[in-house]
Design goal:
- The complex is a heterodimer of chains A (281) and B (327).
- With 281 residues, chain A is mainly alpha-helical.
- Chain A is built from twelve helices and no strands.
- Chain B has two domains: 66 residues; 257 residues, MetI-like fold (Orthogonal Bundle), CATH 1.10.3720.10.
- A two-stranded antiparallel sheet of chain B has the order 1-2.
- In chain B, α3 runs antiparallel to α8.
- Chain B is flat, with a radius of gyration of 28 Å.
- Classes of the chains: A mainly alpha (281), B mainly alpha (327).
């Protein structure tokens, strides 16, 4: 009896120890990656990094200005396009199609699209857009990213709208407001913070996406504002430079990785803080 | 405002008429608004349908040329225009399975620690840190994997495994890059996804159930093993499937470290290729007659596999949550 008790205690301590170890592995991964980025990436971020364009193979110096601007344009356009689409689709799921068949199928498909392989989205946009216009372009990159961002916005908007108490809606209806104004001016306004969180998370998600840009926006060695051309962007430039044999290219890639990681993690943290305040108040 | 003042019967009628007109306008606006939101919602369905159709159409020349053999043949040779999906499918499945074999126990440990052992004040920061791991872009995992992690695997882990485990799966020179390393990097990537689903479903276990078990003298491990896990089984499997879906379609992290070799080998230390890494490496420079259709064929296979896995995961997680709601 005593030995069995000892054994049970031993198994229990062992399981606690191993689960603690698992947490350490997770944390170690995070810290290791972040530390690598800071050690290798921060020194690469100097004035030229932000002001000069990517260097030609074998030449010294250079920066990431064209890729930074390209990424800003592509991600900015994606955000402008996918925010209203995602919010309106989310309003439909929460306010109009509550129990309809279409809504439940859409919900299911949206959840799958959240995790669908992003490289296949790139293939789709290539077939749809690049193959018909016969050239790579910043536009097609934005389209591919929008297909990834929209489901994120749809789901957070819908989940947030579901938190709006029914009595608030009824009060607005009782004042004689039309339904669309209740949706936009009452419900959506009530959960503004949560919806913004969703948009921020969507931006965080697409900022680092590489695979869908590989055969849509491609890359461009030169600085351009023209979204109808192949466009440099941070993720694809990191991919090309990291795989290259040139040491200064690899350094620039570390710098760009650190830049993206800082941006994405900041967005994640800000979104989380904004959302927490929202739910606590 | 005086003309709006209601004084006579006519005024009342006029006011009612105005009101009726207004209602009609509101009704029409509502219809339009509902129509707009509906069309955006169905856009998602259209995209899914469009992806399937466009992949089939673009891949058709390859299916016509190679027939069913395209799906299992292990030749992939752009130089003589002979394409089969076998190597890429094998690489995709094996890297994902390694990721699960390593990632699931760790995720389970994390979820168990966060819900059972962890002091309450530490739960939120630890949970957030693990979730931040999910926010790190995959290209950074790949870059880090190639320059930092792969050399360590090559130096310390592989020689040891070759010595003690050996043929047929762990043999050959320790290259660092290959299917095994890709699986390990993927494991780190899917841990946050699986762990957060597991934590969420573990939290749905009614406190009364656990307290009863503690009350009859169960240890913490016995509670997890005999109460929490059986209660949340469906949701846990759903979480694992979600991780699998993520791992199957992951591109950048794998492309950096898998070694990109179109050779079939049972040896996990050998360089290989996954569907996503083949696409990432070859698509931009592929020849449009057969190479591009073959790559679209790979994309179609990947899309169908991940769709089935993710649909199953979605359904299982829902099932798990419904149970929690209905107790």
């Amino acid at each position: 009896m005593d030995r069995r008790y000892q054994k049970r205690k031993l198994v229990n301590s062992l399981s606690t120890l191993l689960s603690g170890l698992a947490v350490c592995i997770g944390l170690l991964g995070l810290i290791w990656i972040l530390a690598t980025l800071f050690i290798k990436g921060i020194p690469a971020m100097n004035w030229a990094f932000f002001t000069e364009s990517t260097p030609a193979p074998g030449s010294e110096g250079g920066g990431m200005a064209n890729a930074i601007v390209g990424s800003l344009l592509i991600v900015g356009l994606t955000t402008i396009v996918s925010t209203p689409i995602g919010i309106l689709a989310g309003i439909y799921l929460a306010e109009f199609g509550d129990r309809s068949k279409v809504a439940s199928v859409t919900r299911f498909v949206t959840d799958i699209m959240l995790s669908a392989p992003s490289i296949v989205i790139g293939l789709f946009v290539y077939a749809l857009f690049v193959a018909t216009t016969k050239h790579f372009s910043g536009w097609s990159g934005s389209l591919a990213l929008a297909l990834i961002a929209v489901p994120v916005v749809v789901r957070t908007t819908e989940n947030m709208l579901k938190l709006v108490p029914g009595s608030l809606r009824e009060a607005a209806f009782a004042l004689g407001m039309p339904r669309w104004r209740v949706s936009l001016d009452v419900c959506l306004r009530a959960v503004k913070g949560g919806v913004i969180t969703g948009v921020l998370l969507a931006i965080a998600r697409i900022t680092g996406e590489t695979a869908p840009l590989l055969f849509t926006a491609l890359n461009n060695q030169f600085f351009t504002w023209n979204m109808n051309q192949p466009m440099a962007n941070l993720p694809v430039t990191i991919f090309n430079f990291a795989m290259s044999p040139y040491e200064n290219w690899q350094e620039l890639a570390w710098g760009a990785s650190a830049l993206i990681a800082i941006l994405v993690l900041m967005l994640n943290i800000v979104a989380r803080i904004a959302f927490r305040e929202k739910t606590q108040s | 405002m005086s003309e709006n003042m209601i004084q006579t019967k006519e005024d009342v009628q006029a006011a009612m008429k105005r009101q009726a007109e207004k209602s009609a306008i509101f009704l029409r606006q509502d219809k339009i608004f509902a129509g707009i939101t509906f069309s955006f919602a169905t856009l998602v369905l259209l995209v899914l349908f469009g992806i399937l159709v466009s992949l089939v159409v673009q891949a058709w020349p390859a299916f016509e040329e190679f027939g069913p053999a395209f799906f299992y043949s292990t030749t992939w040779s752009p130089t003589d225009g002979n394409f089969g999906a076998g190597i890429a499918v094998w690489g995709t499945l094996v890297t994902s399975l390694i990721a699960l074999a390593v990632g699931v126990p760790v995720s389970f440990g994390i979820a168990m620690f966060l819900t059972e052992s962890c002091p309450v004040w530490l739960r939120r920061p630890l949970g957030t840190a693990i979730e931040l791991l999910a926010g790190v872009p995959s290209i950074i995992y790949g870059f880090w994997g190639l320059f930092i992690f792969a050399p360590i695997v090559q130096e310390y882990i592989q020689p040891w495994m070759i010595r003690w485990l050996g043929e047929p799966f762990f043999a050959g020179p320790p290259l660092g890059l290959g299917i095994f390393t890709a699986g390990l990097v993927l494991a780190l990537m899917v841990i946050p996804f699986i762990a957060s689903v597991m934590r969420d479903v573990f939290e749905t276990v009614p406190g009364v159930l656990k307290e009863s078990a503690y009350g009859i003298g169960c240890t913490r491990w016995e509670v997890v093993k005999n109460i929490v896990l059986p209660y949340t089984r469906v949701g846990v499997i759903g979480g694992i499937m979600l991780g699998l879906g993520r791992a199957l379609g992951e591109t950048m992290a794998v492309t950096f470290v898998i070694g990109n070799a179109n050779r079939f080998s049972l040896n996990l230390f050998a360089p290989g290729n996954s569907i996503a890494s083949t696409l990432a490496n070859e698509f931009a420079e592929a020849d449009p007659t057969l190479h591009i259709p073959a790559l679209f064929g790979l994309g179609l296979i990947l899309f169908i596999i991940t769709f089935v896995v993710l649909a199953a995961s979605e359904w299982l997680i829902k099932q798990g949550q419904r149970k929690a709601g209905g107790h």
